[in-house]
Amino acid sequence: MSAKPDSRALLARWPDAWLLGGVRTPFVDFTQAASLVSPIDLGIKAAREAFSRVGVMPSDTGTVIAGCMAQASFDAYVLPRHIGLYSGVPVEVPAHLVQRVCGTGIEVISQGADAVAQERADLALCVGTESMSRNPVAAYTHRTGFRMGQVEFRDFLWEALLDPSVDMTMGGTAESLAKRFDISRAAADRFASRSFDRALAAQADGFFAGEICPLQDESFDVDGFRARGIRLRGNGSGISADTHVRGSSLEQLAKLKPAFGGVQTGGNSSAIVDGAAAVLVGSSRYVKERRLEPLARLVGSAAIGVHPESMGLGPVGAIRALLRDARLELADIDRIEINEAFAAQVLACVRELGLDESRLNVNGGAIALGHPLGATGIRLALTLARELRRQRLRYGIASACIGGGQGIALLIENVPAGARA
Q1: What pTM did the predictor assign?
Q2: Domains of the chain: which residue ranges?
C-alpha cells in the first residue's frame, strides 16, 4: 500500500500548452436551487462564459473535452457533444467524455493539453460538470421484468461510495487513514474549520467572485437546434456565490455525529453540491495570433494507482511522480491544492509528504466549497492559477485522490509577463 511513485505512473509533460483562463458556476448545495438543472446545461453555461471571459470565439475550438461522473439526465450520452454545440463550437468539431472519478477535471485539462501540445488542436474547450442532486435512484437487474419480492432500486449516489473490491466506503478509507496516521476527531475538525474560514475570507475579499459566473434562469438558443436552458428551483433572483460556505467553529463541528463510525462527519467531509467549471487550453501560436495573455503554463501531469484501501493517499504518489519527472522539489512549489474529500485524508497526505500547510488550499477547499465530482479538478486548477497570479508566485500543483485507488496531479507555472507565450 505504498504511496511512493514508481515507473508505472502515467506521466505527461507539455512543451507548449497554456491555460488561457476560465470560469465556474457557483457550487450549490445538494437538492437546493440548482437541483433541477441538467449537468449538460451547467456545463453549457460555464463554457459560454469561459469563451466570453477569455475573449475568444467558440469557432476557433479544435476539440471539446468534458468530464462528468453520473448519468444525471436521459440525454447523458451526448453530454460533451451538446456542451460544445450549445456553446457555439462548430458542428464539425468532435467532443468526447472523460471519467476519472474525483480526478476527472484534472484529466480533462491534461487531455486538452495533450491535444494542443501534439498540434491536434490550437484551442481546446475543457469542461467539468456534475449534478449530484440528479444522481438517480436506479435498478440494474429488471430489464427482463420483476420477480415477486425481488424488486431492487437503490440510491446511486450512496451506493457509488462503496468500493466492493475491499468492501469499504470512501468514508471508510478515510477512517482507515485516520487510524494509520493517528488523526484525531479534533484534528479533522480543526482542518475543516480552517477550510471554512479561508473560503469565507476568499468570498469576502472578492477572490472567488473573479472566477464565478452567476446562475439565473436563461435559455440557450442555437440556430438549427431545439432550445434548452437553466431553470432554478425557487430562486428567481439567481445565485452568485457558493452556497455551502458558512461560519463553522470548532464548537459547532464538534457537535456533529460521526458519519462513518470514526472521525469523519458531515462537517469535516466534502460537501455535496451541484456545479460546473470550464477552461480554455491553447497553443503559443494561438496565443500570439489572438494577442492573448494566458493565465498560466501547463507543465505536466501524473496519474498513479494506489491500493483501494488507501485511495486517499493517491495525491502523495501522483505529486511525487510529477515532481520527479519535472526535476523539482516540493519546496519549489509555492501553492498546492489537494481536493478535500475528507479532512483525515488530506491530513494523511500532509503528513506523508511533510507538507507546509500554509501553502495548502489557502482559499479553502471542498469541505467548505463542495465537491461536484466532474467539475472539482477544473475548479482546483483555475483557483490555483489565479492565486499564483495574484501572489506573483511561480509553481503550483493541483491534486486529487480518486475512488478505487488512484491519484492525479497537475503542475502549472505562473510565467512572468515578458516571458509568456
Answers
A1: 0.96
A2: 12-135+209-243+270-290
Q: Which of 68, 126, 213, 401 is catalytic?
A: 401
pLDDT tens per residue across span 256-304? 999 999 999 999 999 999 999 999 999 999 999 999 999 999 999 999 9
Question: Is residue 213 flagged as an active site residue?
Answer: no
The residues with which 397 forms a beta bridge, in sequence order, are 336, 411
Angle between helical axes of 104-117 and 373-391 (0-180°, round to 10): 70
Catalytic residue, chosen from 68, 102, 213, 349, is 102
Tell the CATH topology of 12-135+209-243+270-290: Peroxisomal Thiolase; Chain A, domain 1 (3.40.47)
Q: Where are the alpha helices (DSSP H) in 93-184?
A: 104-117, 156-159, 170-180
pLDDT digits (tens, 9 = 90+) for 92-101: 999 999 999 9
Q: Is 102 a catalytic residue?
A: yes
Matching residue, cell 472566477: 211
Task: Read off the DSSP letter of residue 269.
Answer: B
Q: Please return the burial class of 235, using the count of CB atoms within 10 Å of its CB with bins 0-12, 13-18 and 19+.
A: middle
Calculate the CA 241 to chain-centre distance. 17
* DSSP bridge partners of 12: 301
